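Reply to dn_fold:

You asked what the input looked like. This is it:
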Amino acid sequence: INELISQFYFVFFHSTGCRGIWDNISCWHHAEVGDVVVNTCPDSLKNLFGRDGNISRNCTANGWSDAYPSVKSVCYSESKPGKVSGMLVFYTVVKTLYTLGHSLSLIALITGSTILCLFRKLHCTRNYIHLNLFFSFILRAIAVLIKDAILFSHNENIQCHEQPSLVGCKASLVIFNYFIMANFFWLLVEGLYLHTLLMVIFSKNRHFVVYLFIGWGFPTIFVIAWIICRIYLEDTGCWERNDSAVNWRVINWPIMASVLINFILFISIIRILVQKLRCPDVGGNDQSQYRRLAKSTLLLIPLFGVNYVVFVYMSEENENETFKHIKIFFDLGLGSFQGLVVAILYCFCNSEVQSELKRKWRSVCLKRYIGRDYRLHSSSISRNGADNVAQFHRNSRAQSFLQTETTLV
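and this is what came back:
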C-alpha cells in the first residue's frame, strides 16, 4: 500500500525526474534529470564517529545513481569500531529497559487508577491529585511508546514526504512534549499540595481547580509557544532536532523550573518533618524518629521527582560523554520505572486502599458463603419436604389398612 501511495504521489506531483526516497541513511528529495543532490553525513553518524562530510547522488534518466563517495568512506571511522559497538549495546539496553519500565508502569498505574476511581471512600482531594499524577504517567508512557513506533519505524518504501517529517510525526512530538511537561507539573502539584497541607491547617477543596490549571494548563501554554517557535524558527524534519536554542528552552526551562521548585518544597517539607519529630509531644526515641524521617524522605523522593535534580541542569551540549551516558541511563532507563514506584507506594501500599480492598474481599467472600449456604439450605428443605410427604403417604396407607381390618372384624 505504501508503495502504491508513493507511486501515485510521484506521478501526480512529479511527473519527471527522480522521486524523493529514504535510503535508511539520508532523505533524497525530488530532483530533475541532470541534477546533483548533496547531503551531509547523518547526525547519528556524526555523533558516533565525529566526522562530517558530504554525500552526493546524480539524478539520471534511469533514476538515482549510487551515493558517492560511499557513506563508509566519508562518515565512518575505522579507529572507533569498539566504541561504536559499545554505544549500540548501551542504547539497545536503555531502550529495552525503558520499554519494560513504561510497560510495567502502565499496568500498575491503570490498576491503581481503577481502584481509586471505583471506591467512593477513596474520593478526596489528595487522591484526586494522585489520580491526575497517575494519568500523567500513563499518558507519558503511551506517548513514549508511540513516538518510538513512529520515529524508529523501518520501512524502505516510505518516501521522504511521508518519512517521519510531516503532520503525523510532528503531532506525535507535540503530544510527547505535552505529556512529558504535564507529568513534571503534576509532580510539582504533589509538592505544592503536601507543602500547603503542612503549612495551612485548613486547606479548602477550591484549591483543586488551581492544581488542575497548573498540572494541565501550564503545559498547554508552553507547548503552544513551542509549536509557534517551531513553525517560524525551525520547521524541519519531524521536529525531533533542536538546532535552535529557543525551541529547546521553551520546553526545558519550564521543566527545569518545576524541578527546582519541587526540590525547594522537598527540602522545606523535610525541615517541617524534622521539627515535628523533635516536638516533645511526639513519642519515641531518637532511633525511631530518625527511622520515621528516613522513611518519609524515601517516600517523598519519587513523588517529588527529586531524582531529576541531579541531571536536569546539565545541557547536552556542555556535558562530557560519560555524564551524558549516566544521565541517559537514569533519566530514560530507571526513570521509566517511576510510575511503577509511585503506583506501588501511593496506591497499593496505602493503608486506606488496603482497608477498602480487604473490606471488598470480605464482602465478596461473605456473599459467596451466604449464597452457597442458602443453596444448601434450600436443597435440604426440598429433600426434607419430599421425605415428609413420602412418610405422610405411607402413614395414610397404613391407617387405611388398619381401618379396613377393623371393619372386617
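The chain has two domains: 2-75, 81-349.
Hope that clears it up.
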